[in-house]
Amino acid sequence: METKFWELKKNPEAAVGEAAGLIAAGEVVAFPTETVYGLGADGLNPEAVAKIFAAKGRPADNPLILHIADPEQILPLTTGLNANARALMDTFWPGPLTIVVPRSAIVPDIVTAGLDTVAVRMPSHPVAAALIRASGCPIAAPSANVSGKPSPTNAKDVAEDMTGKVAGILDGGNCGIGVESTVVDTTSPVPTILRPGGITREMLEERLGAVEVDPALNGDPALRPKAPGMKYRHYAPRASMYLYEGTQAARRLTEAAIRAQKQGLHAGILCDDGVKSHLEENLRRGHSLEILSWGSGKPDLAEHLYELLRDFDRLDPDFIIGMGVDEKGLGLAVMNRMRKAAGYHILLAEEGKTVVRSGSGFPEFLLATGE
Ligand code: TXA
Ligand code: MG
After folding, report:
1. Quick check: CB of 183 below 6 Å from ligand 1?
2. Which of 253, 277, 363, 252 lies closest to 318, judged by CA?
3. What is the pTM of this model?
């Protein structure tokens, strides 16, 4: 299939109009949102939605989010909204929040994977909103990656995964938030975060009072996540990744990187600007490491994480060592993605020692302390 590529800088109205025409005609188009790029099709047309699953290679038991451009557009999609659902819509829409509500009969089974609930989100990105309005339907859209790869946060990464598989790609530049929307189940007695994202747990608690986090998100393989998509190996770079967490994470990562260099290992290092500049001052020239920094602070980490994981795929290191952050605010979302990327190979860096928090088969030198 030929894939059209529209640069929105040139003639945005015409491009969005053309893309909307393709969606209304039952085709699949990739488009930017404030979180990550989505792969959109008419959410009420089962044949069109089937093309999304085919393009991504997505398992059929993983339901999709319906994207809308006005809050009222949710009404025909659900049998009813409770007070929590309404409060969340009023406070956080448009924005990076998806709510799970009881589904109505017009929502096709393929969208919900047969569940009796449907996930709905109203994105704030102007291109997404314009595309939904011009298409005249709710747009079903998962992230625009091939299943199992990190979600794309720029049009080049979308093109890498989707050229030849979809009718078109709208290039709206980089996504500002960089991790997927927060998914909240409003049908449980206490609203429950099924996937952490741009709207933080603290923001939800401030609005709703008590909020739960699906316990399966911690990576306990015995628990089954309530969002079907959270069970899959996701967000994963090709190389094995090991993650340092805890108060001494930055220091222990720095020491491990210096040891890796002394052994001439082709290691990928994922860290912030502070650690990167410290390492560059202390490593010999022509060293064997690939050091990628996200900048500084959690918003930078969220914005760049997926792009950096994809960069590591291109650099092809033998393994990656990452630096974790605390779970406050956006930290819950980024640590959820980083832990998955690391396959839950997690080391806890404490004062004076490093212990295994989860996983096995760690290279011995990662557990040592000092250079
Ligand atoms: O930010 C986002 O949410 C992006 C952009 C494109 O909007 N979309 C996205 O979609 O991340 P996707 O399909 O990659 O992830 C949707 C998640 C999956 O984990 C899925 O299992 C869950 O939402 N989900 C969808 N419908 C659900 C439902 N009825 N009940 C529970 N979880 C559901
Ligand atoms: Mg996804």
Report:
1. yes
2. 363
3. 0.96
